[in-house]
Amino acid sequence: AFPHKATVCIGDERIVCCGALLAQQSEILEEKIREDGGVVMFEEMSGLENCGDVLMECIEYLHGSDLSFSLKTYEVVLKFSSWYKVRNLFNGVLDWIKFYL
Asked: Which neighbouring-strand residues pair with 10?
């Protein structure tokens, strides 16, 4: 059975999320949730500057929160959205880049 609760690990922080909601927005996140029994880690992103806080914002965005883009955050958001194929988020970042850069 699919784990409906997912534990998202970002650095030392752990938050419990709706696994179904994450999976609905990204096939890659769905796969990670299934493979790791509901635990999601973002090892691929660990080397990016400001990564932890921005990743947390991305997870909150996937749960319905607003996400503000800036020169300090767009790189992490763009990589997160492209690596995990979160289409709406990726398109939002591209629109922001077109408008502001």
From this structure: 13
